[in-house]
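Structure first, sequence second, as always.
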């Protein structure tokens, strides 16, 4: 539906969707082979997100290519020549964008959690395959069918480019007189939105809070608790040296929240095992506290070499691993994305600013999301792994739109200077980037239809962050920074600063047309 509205053509939307479906099929086949023969960890979570990511990213890349192809069709009578120019101009941005996502996803292999580490390669494969399909199959299909595919608004050779005087051109001209004031206010508002992070609870979710609706099993559990029929299946399981097992049992008997320790059972190798019923919900904070108290107690027994396991211990260790992954992987992703931007833009200052704007957007998205989770949707909290997944998706995907914009700014800077080039880039890419963001946001919101709080929260946060990136960060904040800094944005590159360059023209008055791009 979004493509139909964007293209305003009853048939053009079919080609990106067909290409995305082909990419998803091929990616699924590659993932299957790696899972079967290379021990790649794949679960239902990876599979669900793979489909959404491939369709969303594929459609984004298609929007960028089709927009540039339509632009070139107005300048070239031969559609093959137009596609050659369109690919030459759009492919570097698409490939750089895809490389950013692939590298960002591959950073997940440093995670302690197998499910997270396995998801990284799965999603990286999906993006890599999608990129290949969108720069090969889709261009071939577009050239084969010809200009009629754009009906009823076919881009005739020599016709005017409508983006030169559209909404985004007017927005650029509105920002141009006071760019420093614009970016200062915009950044300030995003910082205020980040304050919502103080309401983000990542302590984890209890069993009954894990789902967005109340299933029969949860109703049954509440009924048992109301009649003091405690579920005895949740236990702590303790293994220790056989000659010290009695001392360990005595230590566990003093832990509040645990039932009477069961009889010790030899398990071989000089080790014994016993269980004790844990009264709290298996994934609750109370259960985690009891597990930690139990571990402290058994580790106080000398020469016992005691280990504490069980369902609650598993969830606690998962939470600990997730917190560790947040601290380790987020800086790695930022560094990887920064290096890619440096290579792409051949500058240092621009990548630093772009990374800063995306991180600011991420903080604002999570801050607003935290308030929505608590006060609108009534969620009890979030999964410990939520910040990492939200960060990886928002930074890896959100930086895409800045890449689309800044590669066009750099292209136009050679001829027009940075300030004029920024206005041309915004007017040319504004519509397609906004449409791409809408597609990505809509596809991630599909996760909200799955009755699992974690997936619903990921969908909401990513959709909100993508809309902030496309509507606010890329169109207002980054453009205002470009207009304020001018040629300094490319430091230390000589672009727009060296001898012989064209003067950095001041922004045009609103009534003037943006110069032709030929």
């Amino acid at each position: 539906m979004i493509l139909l509205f964007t293209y305003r053509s009853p048939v053009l939307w079919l080609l990106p969707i067909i290409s995305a479906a082909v990419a998803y099929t091929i990616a699924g086949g590659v993932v299957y082979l790696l899972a079967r023969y290379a021990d790649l960890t794949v679960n239902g979570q990876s599979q669900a997100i793979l489909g959404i990511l491939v369709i969303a990213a594929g459609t984004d890349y298609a929007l960028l290519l089709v927009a540039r192809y339509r632009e070139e069709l107005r300048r070239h009578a031969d559609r093959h020549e137009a596609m050659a120019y369109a690919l030459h101009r759009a492919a570097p941005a698409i490939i750089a964008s895809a490389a950013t996502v692939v590298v960002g996803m591959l950073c997940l292999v440093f995670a302690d959690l197998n499910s997270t580490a396995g998801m990284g390669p799965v999603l990286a494969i999906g993006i890599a395959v999608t990129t290949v399909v969108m720069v090969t199959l889709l261009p071939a299909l577009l050239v084969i069918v010809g200009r009629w595919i754009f009906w009823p608004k076919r881009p005739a050779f020599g016709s005017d480019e409508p983006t030169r005087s559209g909404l985004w051109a007017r927005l650029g001209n509105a920002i141009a007189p006071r760019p420093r004031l614009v970016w200062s206010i915009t950044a300030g508002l995003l910082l205020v939105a980040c304050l919502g992070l103080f309401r983000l609870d990542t302590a984890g979710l209890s069993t009954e809070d894990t789902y967005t609706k109340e299933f029969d099993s949860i109703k049954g559990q509440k009924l048992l608790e109301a009649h003091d029929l405690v579920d005895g299946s949740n236990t702590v399981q303790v293994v220790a040296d056989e000659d010290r097992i009695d001392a360990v049992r005595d230590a566990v008997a003093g832990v509040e929240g645990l039932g009477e320790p069961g009889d010790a059972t030899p398990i071989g190798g000089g080790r014994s095992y016993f269980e004790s019923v844990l009264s709290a919900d298996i994934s609750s904070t109370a259960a985690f506290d009891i597990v930690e108290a139990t571990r402290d107690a058994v580790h106080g027994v000398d020469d016992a070499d005691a280990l504490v396991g069980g369902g609650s211990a598993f969830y606690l260790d998962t939470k600990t691993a997730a917190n560790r992954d947040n601290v380790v992987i987020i800086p790695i992703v930022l560094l990887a994305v920064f290096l890619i931007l440096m290579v792409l833009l051949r500058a240092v200052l621009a990548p630093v600013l772009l990374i800063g704007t995306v991180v600011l957007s991420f903080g604002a998205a999570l801050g607003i999301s935290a308030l929505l989770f608590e006060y609108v949707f009534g969620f009890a909290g979030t999964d410990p792994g939520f910040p990492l997944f939200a960060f990886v998706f928002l930074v890896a995907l959100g930086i895409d739109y800045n890449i689309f914009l800044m590669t066009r700014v750099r292209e136009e800077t050679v001829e027009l200077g940075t300030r004029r080039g920024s206005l041309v880039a915004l007017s040319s890419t504004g519509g397609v980037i906004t449409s791409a963001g809408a597609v990505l946001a809509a596809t991630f919101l599909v996760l909200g239809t799955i009755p699992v709080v974690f997936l619903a929260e990921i969908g909401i946060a990513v959709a909100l962050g993508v809309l902030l990136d496309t509507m606010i960060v890329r169109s207002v904040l980054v453009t205002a920074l470009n207009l304020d800094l001018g040629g300094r944005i490319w430091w230390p590159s000589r672009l727009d600063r060296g001898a012989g360059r064209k003067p950095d023209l001041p922004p045009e008055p609103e009534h003037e047309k943006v110069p032709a791009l030929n």
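Margin note: The beta strands are 235-241, 265-268, 271-277, 307-310.
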